[in-house]
Amino acid sequence: MKKITAIISLLLLAVLFVGLVLVNNQLLSQVRVDLTENQVYSLSEGSKSVLEDIDEPLTLYFFYSDSASKGMTSLRNYADRVKSLLQEYEQAADGMIKLEVIDPEPFSEAEDQATQFGLTGATVGPIGEAIYFGLAGTNALDDQFTIAFFDPQKEQFLEYDISKLIYQLSDPEEVKLALVTDLPVTGGQNPMTGQFTPPMVFFDQLSQLYDVEVVESNADALPEHTDVVMLAHPGKLTEKLRYAIDQFAMNEGRVLAFVDPHYESAPMSMMGSMGANSSTLTLLQSWGINADLQKVVLDARLGLDIRAQDGGIVTHPGILGLTAQELNRQDVTTANLESINGASFGTLSLVQGSQLRQESLFTSSADARLISAEMYSQNMDPAALQKELDGATQSYVLAARFTGRATSAYSGPVAEATAFSSNTSKISVIVVADVDMLADRFWVQQSNFFGETVYTPFANNGDFITNATENLAGSNALISVRSRGTFVRPFERVQELELKAQARYREHEEKLQTELADTEAQLSQLQSHPGQSGALVVSAEQQAAIDDFVAKRVAIRKQLREVRYQLERDIDALGNWLKFVNIAAAPLLLVILLFGLSRLFRRKAGAVYTGVRS
Amino acid sequence: MNVWLIAKREFSSFFSTPVAYVFIAIFLMLSSIFTFFVGNFYERGQADLLPFFNFHPWLYLFLVPAIAMRSWAEERRSGSIELLMTLPVSIWEAVIGKFFAAWAVLGLALVLTFPLWLTVTYLGKPDHGIIVAAYLGSWLMAGAFLAISMCMSAMTKNQVIAFILAVVICFLFVMSGTAVVLDAFRYWAATLTIDTVASFSFLTHYDAMAKGVLALNDVTYFLLVIFIWLYAGLIIVEQKKAH
C-alpha cells in the first residue's frame, strides 16, 4: 500500500515539476541582473524608447554562419554577444519584434536569402566558404534595411547600429534636410572665371542619401517636414527665416551648423583682398553656444604642407589635417574617421551660464594658439604665419556636440506667427567652426576615368558630414545611444611579452643580418679571386679562410634561427609555468592545506557527532 | 537546528575519510587540465574563464554522482539508517542536512579554483562580474546534479547502481537541449513541448549565467530541480523505511 502511495506521489511530483518549469519559463524570464562590467547584455534607455515607438511588427533576420565558423573563437564570441543582444531587443520589444536566427550553410536556400538581402559574405578557408554575419530587417510595408556585416572593430557601436536599423524600419520615411546656405553647393558659374562648376561633392553625397532642399538666406521659411537643418556659412538671414530656424531648434532641436572665422575657399577670398570672410550666426550665441569667429587657430603640429607661391613646399599652420588622435573616439559621428582636413578653424565653448552640455568632436593639438582672423586673412605667406606660432601651448575645441536645455533667441512670437516655444530641454546641435572642410579641394581628388569624373576622397570630411546628418536625423532616443565598452579582453601580459620579444628579436636580427651579409660578401670575393697569380688553384691559406667564412655563415644562420625561436620562448615559458601552477602545484598545495585544517578541527567535529547520537 | 547539526556531522565525515580530498583534488586538476589543454585557455588569449566554466557540466556529470552515491546507499547497506531513523530528527531534516553538507563540499571545491581566477587577472583585465555570475551558476548547477544523485542513492543499496543511474539521469538533463534528445521529439511533438523539453537542459540555463546575466528563470530552474529531486528522495527514503 505504502509503495503505491509512494509511486503516485512521485508521479504527481513529476507532473508538478513539468508544470512549474513551464510557468517558470513563461513568467520569470523578464527579471534579470546583468553583472557584466559595461552592461553589455542590457539595452540602454535610448534603445528602449526606440523600441517603444514601434507601431507595426518588425522581423529581424540574424544571419550567422555557425557551422562554417568553427574554431574562430573571437568571431564566435562576438557573434554570441550580438545574438544575445538581439534576443534582448526581442524581449524588450514586447512582441513587436520577431527574431529569426539563420545559419546560411554553403549552397543552401538560406545563403541565397542572405545574398538577396545584400549581406556581405567574408570568404575563409581553402575552398572559399562564405561566412555571413549580418542582420536584415523588414517591416509590414516590406521596407528593408540591413547591416551587411557586424564588424568586430565597430563593436562599441553595436547597440547604436542595431537601434538605428530598428528606428529606420519603424520610421522608414526619407529624411528631409534643409540646407541653409549661400554657397554654390549645387554648382553654377564661377564669377571669376566664368566656368561652369559641378555641385560640391558633399552636397552630391547628401542628395543621394536624403531629401535635401537648399534654402537661401533670403528665403522666408524652412521647408515643411524638415527633419534636420544644416547651416553652412549662410549670409545675413531674413528675420522670418531666422525666427523659423530658432523655432525649429526649440521644437525639433536638430541642427548641424558650419561657421567659420574666415571662409577662404570662396573665390573672392582666395584673392586675399577681402578681409576676413567670417560667418554671422547670432542664433548660436542665444542658444548658449559661443563660437569665437574673430580668431583663427594656428597649430604647430597639425599644419598641412602646401605648395608655396615660389613653387616650394611649405607647412601652413592654419590649414590643418586632424588625425584620429584629434577626433573623438567615443562619439558615433567621429569614432571611425581617420582624418579631417580644414582651414582657419575657429573655436567653440559654452556661453557663461549656458545649460547645454558640450562634447568636443574635433580638437586641435596641444601646441596651438589663436591669432586674429583679420590678420590671418591679410597674410598670404605661410612662412610669416609660422613665426606667429611662438607660445602655442593650448588645445582648442574645433567642433562639438551640444545637447540639453536652451532658450529661444526671441522673447515672443514674431508678428503673425502663432505657436511659439521659448525654450527646449532636448536641443541637439553639432557645430563645426570651419566651413572650408565642406569645400572639395580639402577632401576629394577629382580625376577623369574614361570620360567620367571620379572623386576619390583623401580625407573623411564627407563621412563626417553624412554621419552627423544621419545621427541627427534619428530620434532623440537614438542619438542618446552612445558607445559601449568593448568585449575583447586580450592577455595584456602576453602582448607585452610579445612586443618586448619582437623588439629584442629585431635588434638582434639586424645585427646578425649585417654580419651575415658581410661574411657572404667576403666569401664571394675570396671565391671569385682564387689567387693573385691568376692560377685556378686555391692556396691552402685561402682555402682555410674560405672554410672559416663558411663555418661562420653556418653559425650566424643558426644564431638567427635561435633568436627566432627565442621570440616564442618567453611566452611559452609563461604558459607552461601557469599550467604547472594551476594543474599540479596549486591543487596539491590546497588539498594539503585542507587536510591540515580538518585535522585541527577534527576534535570539535567529533563532539558534534556524539552530540547528535546521544 | 537539526538540519544544521546533521549537515555539520555529514560535512566533517566527508573530511574524516579521504573522499572529500580525493574529490577536491580530482576536481581541481581535471578542471585545470580541461581548461588549459582542451579549452586552449592560454592559446586563445582572451581574458575570460569561458574555457574553464564550459567543462563544468561534464565534470559534474561524473564527479557529483560519485560523491553522492554513498549518501543513502551506504547508510542502508551498513544498517546505520535504522539508527538514524530512531534519532529525534525527521526524515526531511536528514535529507536536507545531507544535501547541504555535500553541496558545501562542492562549493568548497569551486572556491578552491581561485588560482585560475588569479591567473586570468594576472594575464589581462577580465570582467569580474561575468566570473562571479558563472561561479554562482556553476554552484547552482552542481546542486541540481547533487539532488538527482542523492535521490538515486536513496533508491538502492548498491553504490555502483546508484552511480550509474545518477549519471544516466543527469546526462539526460544535460543533453535535453541538444539534438540528441530533441530529435526524439521533433517529428511528432508540438513546438511548446519541444521548447519545454529544451528548457529542461542544464546547459541552456547554465550558459546564460556563465555569460554574466543572472535571469530569475535560470536561477529558479535550478532551485526547482533541487527541490523536486530532494522531495522525491524524501518520498523514497520514507517508503523504504517501511521495509
Task: Looking at this protein, list some descriptive labels.
heterodimer, A: 614 residues, alpha+beta, Glutaredoxin, Rossmann fold, 3 domains, seven-stranded mixed sheet, five-stranded mixed sheet, 40% helix, B: 243 residues, mainly alpha, 83% helix, globular, DUF7088 (chain A), membrane (chain A)
Indicate the topology.
The complex is a heterodimer of chains A (614) and B (243).
Chain A: H1 2-27, E1 32-34, H2 45-52, E2 58-64, H3 73-92, E3 97-102, H4 109-116, E4 121-124, E5 129-138, E6 144-147, H5 158-170, E7 176-181, E8 188-189, E9 196-197, H6 201-209, E10 211-215, E11 228-232, H7 239-251, E12 254-258, H8 267-270, H9 282-287, E13 289-292, E14 295-299, E15 303-307, E16 313-323, E17 339-343, E18 347-350, E19 356-363, E20 368-372, H10 373-378, H11 382-387, E21 397-407, E22 423-432, E23 444-449, E24 452-457, H12 461-473, H13 476-480, H14 492-528, H15 540-613
Parallel strand pairs in A: 2-3, 7-10, 7-11, 11-12, 12-22
Antiparallel strand pairs in A: 2-5, 4-5, 5-6, 8-9, 13-18, 14-20, 15-16, 16-17, 19-21, 21-22, 23-24
Helix pairs in contact in A: 6-12, 14-15
Chain B: H1 2-16, H2 19-38, H3 41-44, H4 50-54, H5 56-68, H6 70-78, H7 80-86, H8 91-111, H9 114-123, H10 128-155, H11 159-175, H12 179-186, H13 191-199, H14 202-210, E1 213-215, H15 216-241
